[in-house]
Write a structure and sequence with these properties.
It is built from 12 helices and 27 strands. It is α/β, with parallel strands linked by helices. Strands 2-5-8-9-10-11-12-13 form an 8-stranded parallel beta barrel, surrounded by 5 helices. The longest helix is centred in the middle third of the chain and has 28 residues. The structure holds alpha-L-arabinofuranose (AHR).
């Protein structure tokens, strides 16, 4: 109580009074602090006088593959469904996703992209062929095809990112798909699109040539893929004022040779090169670890692994810098997120997994890292949007629940298209055995209206972080914000308890002359606006 009295004596700013009231009246908050009575002391300087480049809003992109219950049930239920829908797309899921202001949506895969033939998914639905989904099992009715995807993008306000089929398709098929979608001419394919219900051509800004061509997309060597990429890219044409950015299959993890070869041999023909990295608590694909049953050791190991993405981005970027010092070619992290063992009792091929506070922390750390590297990282697409891997939304027939990861994306949307503001952060390490991670991750940006936003993650599940924060060249008069946390590391939202992990107002700060003392709870994600 002594400390609280001293605090109260010195209280001047409204924020600080609020912080003190919380300390006095919220026993659960006090109990949480008691886990580690001494907070981790950190310092942060926000270099607002040295603004950097724009954080591409596409860093908060999403990915939707024909996999498990993502497309069918998760998004598409059909016009005759008893689940409320608009032209077959479920209203609850689309409504929730709209709130995220999704900038860009990648489709139809993933591995599925290299087996997808676009003509199967156009025309009257009852005439469309049913094909086995060779990558993920089951039969695809093709009820969801190009028109349905574009309708979804328009409902969400997201730009379409189409992933073309290099593995089992042809340059002609790819070329004709683009003509079908984007040509306003009197050609047979443009007429066919109109006949199928779409008069105006669509805008297709991003088109990838294959997916994971070093693996499920054809098991190619980088030299072979580079040649194939150049061949296919030659036939990607801009019709009727549409301008396509052509994206090449990039590397995964630390497969640097792939990046080296692609940049040396095909950089001129590409606007983007992808990178895939999944966070597995164990790094072992045969035994990845549970999505929900884990202790602090697994929590820590997951954070160690997710933070590795920064090293991969730095090293792939360094290779790209050699060939493209102007940073014309974007690094597109078009698959990232957590990947756990399938939930017992669920369809193994469906990649359904629950989502906990740990996933929220992983998402926030990754988004902070992408912001920091936004000079090269121009797009990132979390895998995947609904019911698959690190999803925003889970469904069970007519029911829907929003995940902790959903709320991180909702909180972080203020960074979209904002100017990156550099920060100097110094925080103690959070260690277990020999492994250690920084206990705090952060990033800052200034939006078009001049508002300064600061996202902070406390990785330590036991200790709060007391961060002495300064904004270089100015003073902070007020702070508003939200915090996402819960009492346990594996707290989650379920269909029966959908509001267990949700953001609440943040008030744990005090303003002292030219600095602000922030008290960030253990295992939390915080988004602040500094006035
Ligand atoms: O996201 C699931 C799968 O992971 C994708 O289809 C593939 O590209 C990656 O290996």
């Amino acid at each position: 109580m002594n400390n609280q009295r001293i605090f109260l004596k010195r209280a001047k700013a409204l924020g600080y009074v609020a912080f003190s009231i919380v300390l006095l009246i919220a026993p659960s908050f006090c109990r949480a602090q008691a886990q580690n009575s001494e907070p981790n002391k950190a310092s942060l300087v926000i270099r607002s006088e040295q603004p950097k480049g724009i954080i591409n809003r596409n860093i908060q992109g999403q990915f939707a593959e024909h996999l498990g219950r993502l497309i069918y049930e998760g998004l598409w239920v059909g016009e005759d469904s008893s689940i409320p829908n608009t032209r077959g797309l479920r209203n609850d899921v689309v409504g929730a996703l709209k709130e995220l202001r999704i900038p860009v949506l990648r489709w139809p895969g993933g591995c599925f992209a290299d087996e997808y033939h676009w003509r199967d998914g156009i025309g009257p639905r009852d005439k469309r062929p049913r094909r086995p989904n060779a990558s993920w099992g089951g039969v695809d009715t093709n009820a969801f095809g190009t028109h349905e995807f574009m309708d979804l993008c328009e409902m969400l306000g997201a730009e379409p990112y189409i992933n073309g089929n290099l593995g089992s398709g042809t340059p002609q098929e790819m070329m004709e798909w683009i003509e079908y979608m984007t040509s306003d001419s009197d050609s047979t394919l443009a007429r066919l699109r109109r006949q199928n219900g779409r008069a105006k051509p669509w805008n297709v800004p991003y088109f990838a040539i294959g997916n994971e061509s070093w693996g499920c997309g054809g098991e190619m060597r980088p030299e072979h893929y580079a040649d194939e990429y150049r061949r296919y890219a030659t036939f990607i044409k801009d019709y009727s004022g549409n301008h396509i950015q052509e994206l090449a299959v990039g590397s995964h993890d630390d497969y640097y040779t792939w990046t080296e070869v692609l940049m040396a041999q095909a950089a001129k023909q590409m606007q983007g090169l992808s990178l895939h990295y999944y966070t597995l608590p164990t790094s072992n694909w045969a035994q990845k670890g549970s999505a929900t049953e884990f202790g602090e050791k697994e929590w820590h190991a997951t954070l160690v692994r997710t933070l590795r993405i920064e090293e991969f981005i730095q090293k792939h970027s360094a290779i790209m810098d050699k060939y493209d010092p102007q940073k014309r070619v974007g690094l597109m992290v078009d698959e990232w997120g957590t990947w756990y063992d399938p939930q017992p009792g669920k369809d193994l091929g469906a990649l359904f997994q629950q989502n906990t506070l740990r996933d929220a922390v992983v998402a926030a750390i990754n988004l902070n890292i992408f912001n920091q590297h936004s000079d090269r990282v121009q797009m990132a697409n979390i895998a995947q949007m609904v019911n698959v891997l690190q999803a925003m939304v889970l469904t069970d027939k007519e029911r829907m629940v929003l995940t902790p990861t959903y709320y991180v994306f909702k909180m972080y949307k203020v960074h979209q298209g904002a100017t990156l503001i550099p920060i100097d952060l110094s925080a103690p390490e959070y260690k277990i055995d020999q492994a250690s991670v920084p206990s705090v991750s952060a990033s800052a940006s200034r939006d078009k209206d001049g508002k300064l936003h600061l996202s902070i993650v406390n990785l330590d599940p036991n200790g709060s972080a007391e961060i002495t924060t300064k904004v270089a060249g100015s003073t902070v008069e007020d702070i508003t914000g939200e915090v996402l946390t819960a009492s346990t590391m594996n707290a989650m939202n379920t269909f029966d308890n959908p509001n267990a992990v949700k953001p609440t107002a943040f008030s744990s700060y005090k303003i002292q002359a030219s600095q602000v003392i922030l008290r960030i709870p253990p295992k939390s994600v915080v988004m602040l606006e500094l006035h």
